[in-house]
Amino acid sequence: MSYVNLDDLTEKEVVKGFKGKFVHSKNITIAHWSIDSGSLLPLHKHIHEQVVNLIKGKLEFTMNGETKIIEPGTNVIIPSNIEHSGKALTDCYIIDVFYPVREDYK
User: Fold this and answer.
1) N or C: which end of the chain has fewer CB within 10 A?
2) Which fold has domain 9-105?
3) CB distance 31 to 102 below 8 Å
4) Is 37 left (phi over 0), alpha (psi -120 to 50) or beta?
């Protein structure tokens, strides 16, 4: 068992305007994102299952060619290897959960 305080973690800008702090367990990664308004997440896919939890802001999200505007309280479930992208319409705060662990975020 362990405890992680986000204040003790170093923020990393993974994509321009997408700044994250990452918590890793044996099997999952939890990403806490602060996203600047107007920032673009390019179309991509990865082996990880991902659950997006929009906490604050408004995000234009595209998955499998379908675009939706998501707002706080919305969760997006992204299966493995599904193309997705996003654009922050406002400043956003998102908590993502990835399975398995995102080794590239360590």
Assistant:
1) N
2) Jelly Rolls (2.60.120)
3) yes
4) beta
Residue 89, number of CB atoms within 10 A of its CB: 15
pLDDT, averaged in runs of 10, over the chain (106 residues): 94 97 98 98 98 98 97 97 98 98 96
Q: Provide the whole-model pTM.
A: 0.95
The label of the residue with tokens 């179309």 reads 43
Tokens of 42: 């390019």
Burial call 20-30: b when 16+ CB within 10 Å, e when fewer: bbbbbeeebbb
**Residue boundaries of the structural domains of the chain:** 9-105
The CA-CA-CA angle for residues 88, 90, 92, to 5°, reads: 70
